Amino acid sequence: MCGIVAYIGKEQAFPIILKGLKRLEYRGYDSAGIAVLNDDSSLNNYKRSGKVSELEEFAAQHDSTGTVGIGHTRWATHGLPNNINAHPHVSSDGEMALIHNGIIENYDSLREELMSRGYVFKSETDTEVLIHLIDDIKKNEQVKTAEAVRIALNSVIGAYAIVVLSKDNPNQLVAARKSSPLVVGIGKDGAFYLASDATPIIEYTNEVVYMEDEEIAVVDRNDGLRIFSIQDKEKVPYIQRLELKLEAIEKGGYEHFMLKEIHEQPRSIKDCFRGRLNVDEGWVKLGGIKDYESKLAKAKRIIMVACGTSWHAALVGEYLFEDLARIPVEVEYASEFRYRNPIIDEDDIVIAISQSGETADTLAALNLAKSKGATILGICNVVGSSISRITHAGSYTHAGPEIGVASTKAFTAQVTVLTLMALSIARKKGNLDDTKFRRIITELELIPDKVAKILEQSEKHEEISAVYKDARNALYLGRGNSFPVALEGALKLKEISYIHAEGYPAAEMKHGPIALIDEEMPVFVIATKGPSYEKVVSNIQEVKARKGKIIAVITEGDTQVKAIADHYIEIPDTDENLAPLLATIPLQLISYYVAVMRGANVDQPRNLAKSVTVE
Ligand code: F6R
C-alpha cells in the first residue's frame, strides 16, 4: 500500500514522478504529493488529498521545476486522508523531505521521545517520526543524511520503503527498505529512478536493482549507486534486466484496466502453461519447483497460505491436490495462520499464493513457516517480488502486470499453476492414470479458446447486469470446486460495485442465508455439469420456491437449469477439475458491468489498494 517514486537526473523531475505516481495509483489513492528541489535550492512540496490528478491540477499553478524530487500516493493507515497527512513530510527546518510506504510500529514511543526534545508534529501519521528522527540524528551526531538514515532505521520497528531528499546535497537521494518493496532504476546519463515497483521505471530503463530488506541505497549524480546494509556493510548492487513491456501496463484501448485484464485471460492462461505442458508428448513440468517435486510427492500434507482472491485460488488448489495428487491440503488465511502458533515442522510444505508477492500477511506467514523448518514455495505473479525471493522455490504465473485493483487474470493464472502442480505431483506419485492425465491436459490446452468464447458473449453479460445493477444484496452459490468460484464472484461484486454479496456452499444456504431470499434477491448459481449437478438443481428449486431470482452459469447444452433459471450464461464443457477456470469468467464480467452501470470507479474501488503491504 502506498506507492513511492523518486527521480534524480538531468530531466525535469516533476512530470516523471507524476507519471510514475499515476502508474502506482493502484497501491493507494487517498492522497498524493511531490516535493521537488529547484535550481535555487527551494524545496517545493505539493500535497493534495484525493487522486494524483488533483495534485496535478494543483501543482500546475505553482513552480514545480527541478531535476530531483520525490513523490507519494497514499493508502491511509494512520490519520485521515487529508492534505496534512499526505506525504512528503518535511523536517521542521524545511531542509529535508521524506516519503514512506509501510508502518512504523514503535512510532508512539519515538514520537514521545522526539516531542520531549522539542519536535512539533503536524500530522497524525506514523511517518512523520522518521523525518524528525533523521533530522535529530543528523544534527546531534553531525553526520550526513545517509548515515543519519542508517542510524535512525536501527531504532525503528516496522515496515518501510523510504526516500529522503535533502537540500544540503541536491545531487543525492537516500532510500531504504524493509518489508515494503523498493526498486532502483539505473537510467542514462547518471539518472536514477526509485519506485515501489518497476512500472514507473520501465519507460526509461530496463536495468534495475531490487533492494533487499534492511538495505540503504544512495543514488548520487556524481558517484552513482551504492548499497549498504543498515549495519553499514557496503554491498555490490545486483543489476537485473526487466522483461516488462510498456504496452503491458497501458489500457490498450479498453475503458478500464479490469476489462482489459478480463479479456487478456485467453492469452494469460496460455502464457502460464507455455513450455510447461506438452499434450502431444504427454507431459507437464514446472521448472521452478523441479527440485522439490519428490518432496511434494512424499508430503503428508501441504498448507496453502494466501489472502483475498489468492485465498480463493488456494481453495481451488485444495480440490485439485486432493483429487489428483491425493495429498491433504489445508488452506489458511495468512493473517490468521501467522498469529495462531500453528503446528509446522520440517516435513511440511507451505505454498504461498500471491499476485503481488508483497502481501504483508502472506509474507509473514511464510517467514514463520520458514523459521520452523518448513519448505516454502511461492506462486506469484510479480517477478522479483518479496515472496518470490524468500521462498525456496516457486512458479511464476506469467499473467503480466495486473493493474485493476480487482484481481481477475491473476486468479485464473494461479489456478492454472495449481492445476499444473497437482498434475505433475500426481504423475510423480503414480496416482493418475494415462487416460485421465491425457484427458485433463488436452482439456487444459483448450481452456484459452473456451475462455475466449465466453468473452464473446459480452452483450448477454451486460443485459443481465442491467437487470441487477440496483440490487442491494446478492448471493453466490456453488458446490465442490465451484464453491471457491462462488466466493470469488461475491468478492468481485462487492469490492467494485459496493453491493453486499456473500458466497456460500449451495447446500449451506438452508442453514441460515435462505432467510434472506425474497423476490428482490439475485442468486448467482454455478450449476455446471459435474458430480453435484443434481444437488445444485435442488438448491436452485429451493431458491425459486422463495421467489429468489436465479442467474445460473451452466454448461452448454444444459436444458434442465435453463428451463428454471431467470437468466443463464452458457460456458463450454470441460473436465470438472478445470471448470473453475471457465465459470469464473461470467462472474468477473457481470461484476465489471454492474460496477460501470453504477458509476463506480472500477479500477480504483474505494478504500482498497492493490498491494496490501500492511497487516
Ligand atoms: C481482490 C483482490 C485481493 C487480493 C489480496 C491478496 O480482487 O485483489 O483480495 O487478492 O489482497 O493479494 P495478493 O494476491 O497480491 O497477495
Summarize the structure in words.
Its main location: cytoplasm. This is Glutamine--fructose-6-phosphate aminotransferase [isomerizing]. It is an enzyme of class 2 (transferase). Residues 2-222 form the Glutamine amidotransferase type-2 domain. The longest helix is centred in the C-terminal third of the chain and has 22 residues, at 434-455. An eight-stranded antiparallel β-sheet has the order 3-2-4-1-10-9-11-15, with helices on one face. A seven-stranded antiparallel β-sheet has the order 5-6-7-8-12-13-14, covered by helices on one side. The model has no long low-confidence stretch (mean pLDDT 95). α4 packs across α5 (145-154). 58% of the residues are buried. The chain has 615 residues and is of the alpha/beta class. It contains 19 helices and 27 strands. It has three domains: 3-248, Aminohydrolase, N-terminal nucleophile (Ntn) domain (Glutamine Phosphoribosylpyrophosphate, subunit 1, domain 1, 4-Layer Sandwich); 251-455, Rossmann fold (3-Layer(aba) Sandwich), CATH 3.40.50; 457-605, Glucose-6-phosphate isomerase like protein, domain 1 (Rossmann fold), CATH 3.40.50.10490. A hairpin with a 4-residue loop joins β13 (224-229) and β14 (234-235). The structure holds fructose -6-phosphate. Fructose -6-phosphate binds next to α9 and α16.
Summarize the structure.
The protein is of the alpha/beta class and about 625 residues long.
